Amino acid sequence: MEQNELKILAQNLANPQGEKGIEIGEMMNATNIGMTLESIKTLLIEDNENILEIGHGNAGHLQDILNRAKNLRYTGIDISETMNKEARKINADLKDQSEFILYDGKNLPFGDSVFDKIFTVNTVYFWDNPVDYLKQIYRVLKKNGTFVLTFGQKDFMDKLPFTAYHFTLYNNEDLADIISQSPFKRMKISEKEEEINSKTGDGLIKRIYTVLTIKK
To answer: Which residues contact 198 (CB under 8 A, 6 or more apart)?
Structure first.
């Protein structure tokens, strides 16, 4: 891909917009589904819980979440107006159990101790101030709640040409240090590996990623 194409791809991975954003949202759901389902499984969702997903994309995986237990409530937040609209459209049949909220990417628009479980996949690269953002997640998470943070490891992500544009990359040690500066103190690190289709159309690549299970 040309440099300009890579910039456009990077921009739409961070904040999908318009028709191109819809296309990239579908591609992200397909290429990230393994990471997403692993994150959902790690949450250990139970009946009657309130779930928050940060950066839901088109939320093509919502039915899988709601199938995990009874009487669940799901809230998805995203900075992309395009993804907000797409998620609402794709999940119109699930509107009684779900809500999609457009937000600024910095301030979680919720009161204290609202959610039993929170998760996010491939968004940490775009957090302006990770420590402050973790403090907000801690605030809206209930006592003894679980936060799952899933990300591609720096050594892998560094090889992808589009991450040169507006991505901040992390290895396990980087994020462990950042989390230690937040109110969260208990964390489990689980490394995973999978084969996925390249976002730049270069065939199959081996992705190495981490699932952090963080307890309040």
So the answer is: 204, 205
Of 136, 210, 135, 145, nearest in space to 173 by CA: 210
Full-model pTM = 0.89
**DSSP 8-state code for residue 125:** G
Strand 50-54 relative to strand 73-78, pairing: parallel
Query: Given this model, what pLDDT does residue 18 score?
Result: 80
- What is the C-alpha separation between 70 and 212, in angstroms, rounded? 25
Q: What is the pLDDT of residue 189?
A: 96
Interstrand relation of 141-152 and 204-215 (parallel, antiparallel or unpaired):
antiparallel
Using an 8 Å Cβ cutoff, are 55 and 105 in contact? no
Contact of 206 with 143, CB cutoff 8 Å: no
Q: In 10 A of CB 173, how many CB atoms?
A: 10
pLDDT tens digits, one per residue of 147-161: 999 999 999 999 887
Query: Per-residue pLDDT tens for 127-141?
Result: 999 999 999 999 999
Q: Give the sign of the dihedral formed by CA 192, CA 118, CA 59, CA 104.
A: negative
From CA 170, how far away is CA 61, in angstroms rounded?
26
Average pLDDT across the chain, whole number: 91
The predicted structure's pLDDT at residue 113: 98
CB atoms within 10 A of CB 196: 16
